[in-house]
Write a structure and sequence with these properties.
Blueprint lengths: L15 H4 L10 H9 L4 H21 L2 H18 L9 H19 L19 H12 L3 H12 L4 H8 L3 H18 L16
């Protein structure tokens, strides 16, 4: 197995959908970006350690399939090494990687669209998310249209601001805001209101 799957909410940003709280993402490391720009394959281990969980978590929540999420993680790292010369700003590393992962996940969904059973990822949830709420939330996300799902995951799970979500998805900020509002409204219809507490337009971080 390329990466040991972790609970998709075992993440500093994991409780966003449940608590409405947001954490600042980690900036990229200048030495890591320099190694990427040189095409140094040894940097892949560092990327995996620092960003693998977030990449795989985003892919899993979009695709609802653990094996597909692992493939997206591996393909994202390979693509990052191949495209590293285009990355200029070390602080942009994390959103750049998540943009690659999102595009790969959406492309995989288009190519291999099929019915999949929700596969809860192993390991115990963190204290902010109990197992019942976690499964309900993942199932609720699975019911959203694919692009709304991706927008919700990138903003509330990966903690990307609206502008970076729009860049990752190749769309406008207004479209992302609309997708977030309709996505959260749909989740509120599907889930107990205690499971999704970030429910108002003001909760959307620009």
């Amino acid at each position: 197995m390329f990466w040991e799957p972790s609970h998709p909410f075992d993440n500093p940003h994991a409780s966003n959908l449940l608590t409405g709280e947001f954490c600042a993402g980690d900036g990229g490391n200048a030495l890591t970006v320099e190694a990427l720009r040189r095409g140094d394959a040894q940097v892949l281990a560092e990327l995996l350690e620092q960003h693998g969980r977030a990449i795989q978590g985003v892919a899993y929540l979009i695709l609802r399939n653990g094996a597909d999420a692992e493939d997206v993680l591996m393909d994202t790292l390979i693509a990052a090494l191949d495209r590293g010369s285009s990355l200029r700003d070390p602080a942009a590393l994390r959103p750049w990687l998540l943009k690659i992962a999102t595009n790969l996940a959406l492309g995989r969904h288009r190519r291999f669209r099929r019915v999949t059973w929700v596969q809860p990822m192993p390991d115990a949830p963190g204290p902010a998310v109990d197992a019942t709420d976690h499964l309900a939330l993942v199932q609720g996300l699975a019911a959203l249209p694919i692009r709304s799902r991706a927008a919700v995951v990138l903003h509330y799970y990966a903690d990307l601001p609206v502008a970076q979500v729009a860049a990752a998805m190749g769309t406008s900020e207004n479209t992302v805001k609309s997708q977030l509002r309709t996505g959260l409204a749909r989740l509120r219809e599907l889930l107990d209101t205690t499971v999704v507490s970030a429910t108002n337009p003001e909760a959307i971080n620009g």
